[in-house]
Write a structure and sequence with these properties.
This protein has 374 residues and is mostly helical. The chain has a domain of 97 residues: Cytochrome P450-Terp, domain 2 (Cytochrome p450-Terp, domain 2), CATH 1.10.230. Helices cover 58% and strands 3% of the residues. It contains 17 helices and 3 strands. Strands 1-2-3 form a 3-stranded antiparallel sheet. Helix 6 runs antiparallel to helix 11, helix 10 runs antiparallel to helix 11 and helix 12 packs across helix 16. The longest helix is centred in the middle third of the chain and has 25 residues. The two termini are 38 Å apart.
């Protein structure tokens, strides 16, 4: 391995094979089990994508209808889990809540060796919005919400629990597409974490809990929160232009731009940016979207860095009334499908993941008795 690769966080190093996703591959772009992300974003519902990732194929009409009902029936939480969520401080980071909630669910509903693992995957997909928003509404509004709704989609269920009413069809569709865009992305940090844990023959909940921990970091999933915080600093496009240039001059990091795999653009950005513009028009926004575009222009002009999926997701979520601390947890509600697919793929042909390391410490040293040490 070259010195550059040693310093690059394993960039460009293949860590295994997968039949789940392509990312930035020549002639393929971003695909889930062979389906192009643009086709899925335009034509699919998120639950179809979840089925594709969990079961390896798109569902038939009958399978889809059955799957929707199955997920709806898996939304409720054990009373013991609800009680535990109430004890988590209201000022905790919501990602910590999901990490703890996943781990706790693994105690209340441990994976059964005789139960198909895909049922655990479906349970987590259905339960994550319920966990998150039960805790959020309890601490923000002082209410114990019913975590069961009649919404036929994860997106609708999420927005319903958050706002206490069914969302508009447009808002449901925007969040639905966002979930599709975030569902899977090959061997990223959180997915690789899940596979490493699964490779030890640990349980499903441990693998997903570890993945949530990896996603929590701002260099991975937390970028959309940082992007929104940046956007909200400025009250005009002109102020954003001046401010971001000053940040670049001070060598401050601008979150939401560039990608470790994509080199010229993030294919997901095109889709979510268009929805962000429609939402801005719906809201009559004259600040957030223009500021976002101004930041995008400066970053390209000065650094040739393009917005990734996180940047315009931030303003899209904001326009739908989603609080900034919940941005990255939405990522969890989506990416649990990809994580689960990878856990199942790892288990199907398992080998312990144990890379080597290049030692750069001191050479062999002689033992020094305590009395003789300086």
């Amino acid at each position: 391995m070259s010195k550059d690769k040693k310093a690059g966080g394993l960039a460009g190093v293949s860590a295994g094979e997968t039949a789940i996703c392509t990312v930035g591959k020549e002639g393929a772009g971003l695909t889930y089990r062979g389906y192009d992300i643009y086709d899925l974003a335009e034509h699919a519902r998120f639950e179809e994508v979840a089925y594709l990732l969990h079961y390896g194929k798109l569902p038939t009409q009958a399978e889809y209808a059955d799957y929707i009902e199955r997920l709806k029936g898996l939304r409720d939480l054990p009373d013991a889990l609800k009680a535990a969520l109430e004890t988590i401080p209201g000022d905790s980071h919501p990602m910590d809540v999901l990490r703890s909630g996943c781990s706790l669910l693994g105690n209340f509903e441990p994976e059964d060796d005789h139960q198909p693992q895909v049922r655990v995957a479906d349970r987590l997909l259905a339960a994550f919005p319920s966990m998150l928003l039960y805790w959020w509404r309890f601490h923000q509004d002082g209410v114990r919400i019913d975590t069961v709704t009649d919404d036929d989609s994860v997106a609708g269920h999420f927005l319903h629990l958050l706002h206490g009413k069914a969302p508009s069809d447009f808002h449901r569709r925007v969040l639905d597409v966002s979930l599709i865009l975030y569902a899977e992305h090959e061997f990223n940090a959180s997915t690789f974490t899940a596979r490493v844990i699964a490779a030890t023959l640990s349980d499903f909940h441990s693998a997903i809990t570890g993945a949530i921990g990896a996603l929590r970091g701002p260099l991975h999933g937390g970028a959309n929160e940082a992007a929104m915080e940046l956007i909200e600093r400025f009250d005009s496009a002109a102020a954003a232009d001046e401010g971001v240039r000053a940040m670049l001059a001070a060598k401050e990091k601008i979150m939401g731009f560039g990608h470790r795999v994509y080199t010229t653009s993030d294919p997901r950005n095109k889709v979510i940016k268009a929805f962000a513009k429609q939402l801005a028009d719906e809201r009559g926004d004259t600040v957030i979207y223009p500021v976002s575009e101004a930041i995008e222009k400066v970053m390209w002009d000065e650094k040739k860095l393009f917005p990734n999926a996180d940047f315009y997701s931030a303003s899209a979520y904001h326009f739908m009334g989603i609080p900034t601390p919940l941005f990255t947890p939405i990522f969890v509600c989506s990416r649990t499908t990809g994580w689960s697919a990878h856990v199942m793929e790892q288990r199907a042909n398992n080998r312990l993941i144990r890379p080597g390391a290049d030692y750069v410490g001191p050479g062999l040293q002689s033992w020094t008795p305590m009395a003789a040490r300086d």
